[in-house]
Specification:
alpha/beta, Rossmann fold, pyruvate-formate lyase- activating enzyme, seven-stranded mixed beta sheet, 19 helices, 16 strands, 38% helix, binds cobalamin, binds iron/sulfur cluster
Length: 517
């Protein structure tokens, strides 16, 4: 039986400016399918190869798939739907499957607007795709579909969601097949080397109100650090990977495991540089361990500092303080680790003054990198519910951290974009002239100059923040900026189904003193 996995061709000029990134989901699903005996697999990355619809059709015509799977985060949902529509036109008998965070929560809307999608996989896909493949292979599909947990489909004009599947409890049972990817395509510009995105932990114990990831993964789980390092060695030796970021939301919350991971990297002399996203509070807790993290190769830490005002941090349920943000940045820099501060801007009460404050903070705290993400109201996040009457745009294609979705009361969206660009220009101009060239002579300096190169490249190509597409050429062009919102797009309510997270359980029981190890 032949299974085809495809990544949709969606671009928005945000994090992707650092290079071409391998879609880890395809490797994790391919690994699970292969372990279950389904080894006739192919993956097509229409994003990295920037394939047109006609090119996709041509590739599809040369295939004879029985199942065609595709992934959607919120901004890529329409591209993902369209990809499966093309797949349906070319292969009317193949089963079309969609997975990923947007489909997981918005399956009702998706199945309504894209009737060519046969089935949506809700949550982690490894076990569910295997159950589905077995049903298709044995001929039990679609008759047996009510028995497969974690899916949604249409039946007699209604949307049916089966009972939620359990999360993958034993992450060590996962055996991703990285060989399914076209490795020569994935390059990280700052280091001019191949990049991978292995996954060590899934989930997050926190409940930030703007975020949907803690809901998606439900429980916090961790792999055996030694096995993760085995995988990293394979990525290095078999695929020539020279840099990795952990796909995890919160790799450091379990200090014991994270230290074991670092020690394993050091004792095996793995010799790769790597990066993580994590929380300010973990950096403060681990002050004394930062030199160890650096010795293990950790070069880039992206911190969810989020805001310049405590009120905003509290509104985000971030459980951090402004002073903690400042201190964490100083500690990381002191340990020789490149630190990136992330700010969320563009809520309804954003003003010129608050945007200026975030710039001043970024200047005073002196992170090496800073980014200003536009607040994006994932329709299944808690903050969305509080803000629902302020959200006028439901064109999910623009829900991408770079487009202002909410219009602040004190300015229009083009002005907001312009102010954010003003912050970027000032921040990176100073860094380029006064900081990066003098940042020592080792890995940190090389890394920072590489980041600058990635910024300049995307700015030159007008890809950064999608500026070319929206027609922004600097403050003088503000009046002509057009975000091309599709006003006909509407939000259907988030589909309702039993979906318990560890956080629901935590509400009922007292929190454990220590995170699980
Ligand atoms: C690495 C990463 C990137 C990389 C690489 C993306 C890529 N090529 O795959 C880069 C830097 C390019 C990137 C860019 C963007 N990203 Co990003 N990214 C991530 C990150 C950190 C890890 C993703 C990952 O690989 N996870 C590990 C894999 C195993 O998990 P997974 O993809 O969810 O797959 C599992 C399930 O979802 C399911 N599944 C997924 N697909 C399918 C398909 C089928 C058929 C089935 C059965 C199951 C299934 O099964 C998989 C295994 O369990 C996540 C946050 C996170 N920790 O997940 C954000 C995240 C996915 N990104 C996000 C966003 C918004 C973006 C950008 C729009 C930002 C921007 N403007 O730059 C762009 C969009 C680019 C694009 N076209 O996808 C958001 C999406 C939120 C949402 N609600 O939609 C996230 C969740 C970050 C966040 N904090 O909110 N990103
Ligand atoms: S700490 Fe990060 S991953 Fe966890 S809920 Fe907050 S923003 Fe989301």
């Amino acid at each position: 039986m032949r299974i085809l996995l495809m990544h949709p061709n969606y671009h928005s000029g945000g994090a992707e400016i650092a290079g071409n990134w391998p879609p880890a989901w395809a490797a994790y699903l391919a690994g699970a399918l292969k372990s279950a005996g389904f080894d006739d697999l192919r993956f097509i990355d229409t994003m990295t190869n920037n394939l047109s619809e006609e090119q996709v059709r041509e590739i599809l015509r040369a295939e004879k798939p029985d199942i065609i799977g595709d992934k959607a985060i919120t901004p890529s949902i329409y591209k993902a739907e369209r990809l499966l529509e093309i797949a349906r036109e070319e292969h009317p008998n193949a089963v079309t499957v969609l997975g990923g965070v947007h489909a997981t929560f918005m399956y009702g809307q998706v199945l309504g607007e894209a009737p060519w999608i046969d089935v949506i996989v809700r949550g982690e896909g490894e076990q569910i795709i295997v159950d589905l493949a077995r049903a298709v292979e044995s001929g039990a599909w679609p008759g047996s579909r009510h028995e497969i947990r974690g899916i949604a489909f249409r039946e007699a004009g209604k949307v049916v969601a089966t009972e939620a599947a359990p999360t993958v409890k034993d992450l060590d049972s996962l055996d991703p097949d990285w060989g399914i990817l076209e490795w020569d395509k994935y390059r990280y510009i700052p280091l001019n080397t191949r990049v991978a995105i292995p996954n060590m932990a899934r989930g997050c114990p926190f409940t930030c109100s703007f975020c949907s990831q803690w809901k998606f993964w439900r429980d916090y789980r961790y792999r055996d650090p030694a096995k993760v390092v085995d995988e990293i060695e394979r990525l290095r030796d078999q695929y020539n990977v020279g840099f990795f970021i952990l796909a995890d939301e919160e790799p450091t919350i379990n200090r014991k495991k994270f230290v074991a991971f670092c020690e394993e990297l050091i004792s095996r002399d793995v010799g790769l540089l790597w990066g993580i996203n994590t929380r300010v509070t973990d950096i403060l807790r681990d002050e004394a361990l930062l030199p160890l993290y650096r010795r293990a190769g950790l070069i880039h830490v992206s911190l969810g500092t989020e805001a310049a005002a405590q009120m905003k941090l509290d509104r985000f349920h971030k459980e951090t303080t402004i002073e903690q943000n400042r201190k964490a940045i100083a500690l990381l820099r002191g340990a020789g680790i490149v630190v990136e501060a992330q700010f969320i801007v563009g809520l309804e009460n954003e003003t010129r003054e608050t945007l200026e404050e975030t710039y001043q903070m970024a200047r005073d705290w002196a992170p090496d990198l800073a980014n200003w993400s536009m607040y994006t109201p994932w329709p299944f996040s808690d903050l969305f519910r509080d803000l629902a009457d302020k959200v006028e745009v439901f064109d999910y294609d623009k829900y991408n951290f770079v487009t202002p979705i909410i219009r602040p009361e004190a300015m229009d969206r083009a002005e907001l974009l312009d102010r954010v660009m003003h912050n970027y220009r000032r921040f990176y101009m100073r860094k380029a002239l006064l900081s990066y060239p003098w940042a020592g002579s080792g890995a940190r300096r090389r890394y920072l100059l590489g980041c600058l190169k990635a910024f300049l490249k995307s700015g030159f190509e007008r890809k950064f923040y999608d500026l070319g597409r929206v027609g922004y050429w600097g403050p003088q062009s503000k009046r002509r900026v057009d975000f091309h919102f599709d006003k006909d797009r509407r939000r259907a309510a988030e589909a309702k189904v039993e979906w318990r997270t560890m956080h629901d359980r935590k509400k009922r029981a007292p929190a454990p003193a220590e995170p699980p190890s």
